[in-house]
Design a protein that fits this description.
The chain is of the alpha+beta class. It has two domains: 126 residues, Hypothetical protein (Archaeosine Trna-guanine Transglycosylase, Chain: A, domain 4), CATH 2.30.130.30; 87 residues, no CATH class. The chain is 22% helix and 32% strand. The strands form two sheets. It has a six-stranded mixed sheet with strand order 2-5-4-3-1-6. A hairpin with a 2-residue loop joins β8 and β9. α4 packs across α5. It is globular. The two termini are 30 Å apart.
Length: 223
């Protein structure tokens, strides 16, 4: 375990999926949700509202042992008629499943998707906000503002690729819009000293120039 090891936090919405993690040592992610692949040494699990008293917390994590692409119908043969039965998923094989002590709690009730963080942040964290670098938190804020505006986007986290500035990408009708916390490069510069609403307005204007957003995100309750 090294401080710079990457940890991917994923969401678990169903008790049977948590049992797959705990008993069978695997976790699934739609390939469409992780087009750049799964770049992490450890996988942690955020339990959603299905878990009663443990709603909104990270209580378990495990090391990644392997990965393969599998159709959902083969991963979960008991659900052959699921709307995504014929879609490809990463099946992530896990090693020892450990409890996170203390658990990482969502004290501000913020919306959680996938989060990339580093081992040193993860192991010390007791609340979700502890997982973010300052720049990642800023980009995540803009990401959720875009989502609330009906614009699907994807994030690149500083922990996902070492020495890479956090970024946002939006697939548009006429190309790809990019924005970054680095002032270098061709994309829009995300200046954290500007008000969020001004940044959001600028992003929406640039996306409109490129014909509007192209993609549709997969809701987590459809996984």
């Amino acid at each position: 375990m090294f401080a710079e090891d990457r940890v991917l936090v994923g969401v678990i919405n169903r008790k049977r999926d948590l049992q797959s993690v705990l008993d069978d040592k695997w976790y699934r992610i739609p390939q469409a949700q992780m087009k750049r692949g799964v770049n992490a040494e450890y996988i942690a699990f955020f339990q959603s509202k299905a878990f009663g008293e443990r709603n909104g917390g990270i209580y378990y994590f495990g090391d990644r042992k392997g990965i393969e692409l599998v159709y959902r119908r083969d991963l979960i043969p008991s659900e052959p008629n699921h709307p995504r039965a014929n879609e490809a998923y990463y099946k992530i094989q896990l090693g020892t499943i450990r409890e996170k002590k203390p658990p990482i709690l969502n004290t501000t009730k913020r919306t959680i998707g996938f989060i990339y963080t580093t081992w040193d942040r993860f192991i010390k964290a007791s609340k979700i906000s502890d997982l973010y670098s300052k720049e990642d938190y800023f980009v995540d804020r803009i990401y959720h503002a875009l989502r609330n505006a009906g614009v699907p986007s994807e994030r690149i986290w500083s922990a996902e690729y070492k020495n890479t500035a956090p970024q946002l990408r939006v697939l548009c009708e006429k190309g790809t819009f990019t924005a970054s916390t680095s002032s270098e490069g061709d994309g829009m510069y995300l200046d954290e000293n500007r008000p969020d609403d001004k940044i959001l307005a600028g992003i929406l204007a640039e996306i409109a120039k490129q014909g509007g957003p192209l993609t549709i995100r997969i809701p987590f309750d459809m996984l």
